[in-house]
Amino acid sequence: MHRLRGWVFDLDGTLTLAQHDFPAIRRELGVPADADILTYMATLPADDYTAMKAQLDAIELRLAADVQPAPGAVELVRQLRDQGRRLGILTRNLQVVARSTLNGLGILDCFAAEDVLGREDAAPKPSPDGIHQLLDRWQLSPDEAVMVGDFRFDLEAGRAAGSRTCLILPDNPWPDLVDWHLPSCSALLARL
After folding, report:
1. 14-40: per-residue pLDDT in tens?
2. In the prediction, which pLDDT does 46 show?
3. E-assigned strands of the chain?
4. For residues 184 and 72, is the Cβ–Cβ distance under 8 A?
5. What is the pLDDT of residues 77-90, one digit of tens each?
6. Which of 28, 86, 166, 169 is the most buried (most CB within 10 A)?
7. CA distance 63 to 56
8. β-sheet with 164-168: strand ranges across
9. What Cα–Cα distance (Å) separates residue 147 from each residue in 26, 41, 95, 169?
10. DSSP at 114
11. Is rRNA-binding tagged as a keyword (predicted)?
């Protein structure tokens, strides 16, 4: 872990306290209870997709206004930045929401503008597209980087990219996808 030069972070639930009530969001949007929201939206006719995208964008912007940092997240990001590590964000949110969230956390300055990727910048996780973009820009190989997140899609994207994976979650429901499992950003910070 100490030799990793590139750190790609999920945002919601990883660097922030989890605040998305996905069942409620699905109900508000009219998405089936067992469906991934972005995958479902991609199947819609163009007009329906556009309308639902506007609804989802509004929900995400509303939620971003109340964001709180996960314990240790701000300190973790700042320490990695101070150590000269490359830092990126790969989120299924809009980039403008990600930037607003990072600004609210007080760590937007730790990320180069082009290294904050939202769903309009890269194929949504679990696609490794965003990780590949960051690694290409940083001129790093996959084994020099780690994808840090709190959900299966983060880990699947990291695995598909060939990078290491770190799960930030009290439990580890996906042991086959995880190189490191820590219960919090504070625990990860202590391990560095």
Report:
1. 999 877 677 888 998 999 999 989 889
2. 94
3. 6-9, 86-90, 116-117, 145-149, 164-168, 180-182
4. yes
5. 999 999 999 999 99
6. 166
7. 11
8. 116-117, 86-90, 6-9, 145-149, 164-168, 180-182
9. 26, 25, 18, 14
10. G
11. no
- Token pair of 93 as six digits: 């949110």
CB-CB contact of 164 with 145 (8 Å): yes
Taking every pair of Cα atoms in the chain, the longest distance, rounded to a whole number of angstroms, is 49
The DSSP symbol for 68 reads -
Q: Which of 37, 93, 86 is nearest to 67 (CA)?
A: 93
**Residue whose token pair is 């709190």:** 150
**Tokens 């479902």 belong to residue:** 40
The 10 Å Cβ neighbour count of residue 150 is 20
Sequence letter at residue 62: R
Residue 105 and residue 16 in contact, taking contact as beta carbons nearer than 8 Å: yes
Q: Is 130 helix (H, G, I), strand (E, B) or coil?
A: helix
40-54, 71-85, 107-121, 174-188: range with lowest mean pLDDT: 40-54
Per-residue pLDDT at 133: 98
Sequence-ordered list of residues with C-beta below 8 angstroms from that of 154, at least 6 positions apart, any chain:
10, 14, 90, 125, 147, 148, 165, 167
Q: In the chain, what are the domains?
A: 6-18+68-191 (3.40.50.1000), 22-64 (1.10.260.80)
pLDDT reported for residue 186:
97
